[in-house]
Each structure stands twice: as structure tokens, then as C-alpha cells.
Write a structure and sequence with these properties.
alpha+beta; five-stranded parallel beta sheet; 33% helix
């Protein structure tokens, strides 16, 4: 019966591609519309005119993203995830650093090294922080949702665990996770992540793909679904969902073409989803009006190739100082990226940086942004960067990326099933465990497809 049912997916990011794969596996006819010439959305990557891969951001693979790894195993690309040593390294102005190590022990004993031997925070500071987490330890997943009404900075102030911990550990964490500082991010977000890391020993382990997500994630997903009958159309910008008062009867493209299906999945980012929802549908139910409360966060990603190795660390790096809260030397972490202008480039540094918060930086020129990043690098590595020359740099700006998880926003995150019986939503802004992330994209797609399957069984 599913073979007779058509599903139109709006958006070819990770959520849309995952939904396509799940649907063709169930026998549905699937078509994916993507307005850009490439797939991947917020996880996209492409080759520039000089033959080097450019990414839309620094994409770290957290151990917690089990649904993502299940997907990659199904399409045969999980081998491309290169797991790094289970430790978090923070670099500081002046060349200092500290690390949070783990032990191969059951939770919570695996975190003992982070508390007693991180080399930076005193035992008293870590003990004060540990005491603040007693409600989290006792109530586990039930506690974090009760703290969505305040920012993490406000939560920390109430528990008095120390300004140094906030500035040096949690500020880069907040910026790395959602690109907004602790004064803006909901306490629920940081507490959810902390509880997961506390409860699941491998959740905080990080990996990198051996190369481009285009080669090891998106194209394999497209190929898998296309071989099973799915159709993919690029350059297909959606203008509007056509609502007849009861159901979605079609999708009008910017070209004027109208496409129809039995079911529709929007896998668009929140700011684009709002643009295609007609006024008649907004009036239909508060569900759609609530989407106006969710906003995207501006993000800047910078890559810099230096003429020498500034750091040999083969892992993700955090920095509370300057404008580079999370970054990595891709010449170490990502073997396929050891190129400069398409030629072999080894024994040097090719950094990728998340530059955040980006709101006040979006008006700067690319050169000005690169200069600020370079200053942060030299401040963190004053000795090894001395005399280092920049051989190439790139800047990627995304005016609206992940949704902003500000205090009180959790109530506005939509479910995958909507009040319109044949319209479903996928994307990290929708309700699921992993927020707006790669894991969240996959889980949201899984949930949207599950909802379609339940509806199709009624017929």
C-alpha cells in the first residue's frame, strides 16, 4: 500500500535526506526538493574553486548521537567516523591549557579525573560545581526541564559555583553547542547535556569524519534512496504550502510549478519554514503561530591554513578567550582534508573555527574576521605560532542557523506531527532529545516518518 503513497520532502539537509531513506525503506514514493545546488543544509560541504573542501561549520560527532551512527551503519559509512581520545582540551590566552580526562569506569566514576586533576580549577571550585548538580544527579532527566525559565548564567549564580568556572569552562561550551553565551542560553540546554555526559560515559567522546560530510554522509544517503526510486531535485525553492482549509493540497515552487503528494514533510530550517506557511494556515491553529517565537542564530565559520604546525593535537579544542570557542586542526583530525589548493598539505595546520558569538561580527569584512581569529590563535599558541604565515583563509557566514534556545522557548518547539493531517515537520528545532544538531536532525526525521507510518495504517 505504501508504494502508492507519495511523500514530498521540502529541504535536502540531513533531516530531509534521513526521512527520504526511511520512507523508501518502507515502500513510499519519495521526492526531495532542495533550493541549493548541494545537499546537507547546516552540515553541507563543497569544494571551492581551488579544489579544497569547505564546510558550513565545525562538525564534531558526539558519542551521544546513537541514531546518527545507526543511520551511517545502514548506508555503510560509519567506518569514516574517527573517534578521538576521550578528553576535552581548553586552550588559553598566554599559551596555557587544561584538560578534562575520563577513566574507563562506570558512570559517574568516569568523570573523576575531570574533577580532581584537570590542572586548572581548584578542588574547591570543582566541589562547589559538583554540589550544584545534586538535583540533576537525584532527578536525572526530570530536573533539566524545570529550569527552562532561566538562563544558565542565572542558574549558576543561584548556585554560586564560581565565576571562573562559568567564564573558562561553560562559556565556550555554550558557544560551541548553540553559538550563544551562558547569559542567553536556557539553563535546560546545558543541564541536559551535562546530565547526559554524567549518565552515559561515552556520550562526551568526540569524533571527526575522515573527510567531507558530502562524501561520507549526504551523497551516500542520496545514492541509497535514489537506487530505491527516490527523486531529488535541486534548484527547487519552495514558495508556499497550499492549504485548502483541511489539508495541504500541494506545494508551489518559486518557478510557479505546483507539486502534489499524499504527505508532506517540511525539513526546512525554522526561518524558511515560516516563510512558506500561508496566513490561512497560521490562523488555523496556534501550533503554527508558535513557530514565530523561534529564531535562528547567526554563525560564522573560518578556515585558516598556516605554513607550519601550530598545534599537533588531534582532537576538538575549546577556548574561553578571544573569538574561537571551539575549533580543530583538520590537518590532524581529518585525513582527507590535508590539502592546500588541491595539493597534498601535511605537517602544517589547517584550522577550522566556530567564531561566536557572531551577531556583532556579521558586519565585518572577511579580512577583519580572519584577523580577529588569527589574533586568538596567536594568543593561545604564542610560541608555536611565532612567525607563522597564513597561506589561505575562508569565511562562511550563516545569518540564521540553529534555533536560539533562549529561556522559555522549549514550549514553542513543535512536534513532528502537526494539526494538519498530511503535514509533518523534521529538523532540530522540533521536539526530540538532541536539539538542533546532527543527532537531532536524524531523530526528528525518524519521528516524522513514524508519524506518517501511523497515519498510513489508518487508511
Amino acid at each position: 500500500m505504501n508504494g502508492e503513497k507519495k511523500v514530498l520532502i521540502l529541504g535536502g539537509g540531513l533531516a530531509g535526506l534521513t526521512a527520504a531513506k526511511r520512507l523508501v525503506d518502507r515502500g513510499f514514493q519519495v521526492k526531495v526538493l532542495e533550493k541549493r545546488p548541494i545537499f546537507g543544509g547546516k552540515v553541507s560541504a563543497w569544494k571551492d574553486q581551488e579544489g579544497d573542501w569547505i564546510e558550513s561549520g565545525t562538525h564534531c560527532f558526539f558519542g551521544a548521537y546513537g541514531v546518527l551512527y545507526d543511520l551511517m551503519k545502514e548506508i555503510g559509512t560509519y567506518h569514516a567516523v574517527l573517534w578521538k581520545e576521550h578528553r576535552l582540551t581548553y586552550t588559553l590566552d598566554g599559551g596555557g591549557s587544561f584538560t578534562f580526562d575520563t577513566w574507563d569506569l562506570p558512570s559517574p566514576l568516569h568523570l573523576l579525573p575531570a574533577i580532581v586533576k584537570n590542572g586548572y580549577f581548584t578542588f574547591g571550585e570543582m566541589a562547589a560545581f559538583s554540589r550544584s548538580l545534586i538535583p540533576l544527579a537525584l532527578q536525572r532527566q526530570r530536573y533539566a526541564p524545570t529550569q527552562d525559565h532561566i538562563s544558565f548564567a542565572e542558574w549558576a549564580e543561584q548556585r554560586r559555583f564560581g565565576k571562573r568556572l562559568m567564564d573558562k569552562m561553560f562559556r565556550p561550551m555554550a558557544l560551541a553547542l548553540k553559538f550563544i553565551p551562558p547569559e542567553e542560553i536556557s539553563a535546560k540546554i546545558i543541564l541536559d547535556v551535562t546530565e547526559t555526559f554524567y549518565r552515559i560515559p561515552d556520550a562526551s567522546c568526540m569524533g571527526f569524519l575522515k573527510g567531507s560530510p558530502q562524501e561520507y554522509l549526504h551523497q551516500p544517503l542520496v545514492d541509497y534512496s535514489a537506487k530505491r526510486g527516490a527523486h531529488f531535485q535541486t534548484g527547487a525553492a519552495v514558495e508556499e504550502l497550499l492549504f485548502d482549509g483541511t489539508r495541504i493540497r500541494g506545494v508551489q515552487l518559486r518557478s510557479g510549478e505546483i507539486l502534489d503528494a499524499d504527505y508532506y514533510i517540511s525539513a526546512l530550517p525554522i526561518h524558511n519554514l515560516r516563510k512558506v506557511i500561508p496566513a490561512s494556515l497560521r490562523k488555523h491553529d496556534r501550533f503554527f503561530g508558535n513557530l514565530d517565537m523561534l529564531e535562528g542564530v547567526p554563525v560564522i565559520s573560518v578556515q585558516i591554513w598556516y605554513d607550519r604546525e601550530v598545534t599537533p593535537i588531534d582532537n576538538v579544542l575549546f577556548s574561553p578567550d578571544g573569538v574561537i570557542p571551539v575549533y580543530a586542526n583538520l590537518a590532524r583530525t581529518t585525513p582527507d582534508y590535508r590539502t592546500l589548493r588541491g595539493e597534498k598539505y601535511e605537517g602544517n595546520s589547517r584550522f577550522e573555527f566556530c567564531v561566536a558569538p557572531a551577531k556583532e561580527l556579521m558586519g565585518l569584512t572577511n579580512d577583519e574576521i580572519v584577523q580577529r581569529v588569527d589574533r586568538s590563535v596567536r594568543a593561545n599558541f604564542p610560541k608555536s605560532s611565532q612567525g607563522a604565515r597564513i597561506l589561505k583563509s575562508t569565511v562562511v557566514r550563516i545569518p540564521q542557523s540553529v534555533y536560539a534556545p533562549l529561556p522559555g522557548m522549549e514550549q514553542y518547539r513543535p512536534t513532528q506531527a502537526t494539526p494538519v493531517s498530511n503535514l509533518f515537520l523534521a529538523g532540530g528545532f522540533s521536539q526530540q532529545l538532541y536539539y538542533d544538531s546532527m543527532g537531532g536532525a536524524v531523530m526528528s526525521a525518524n519521528l516524522a516518518v513514524d508519524a506518517i507510518l501511523r497515519d498510513s495504517m489508518k487508511i
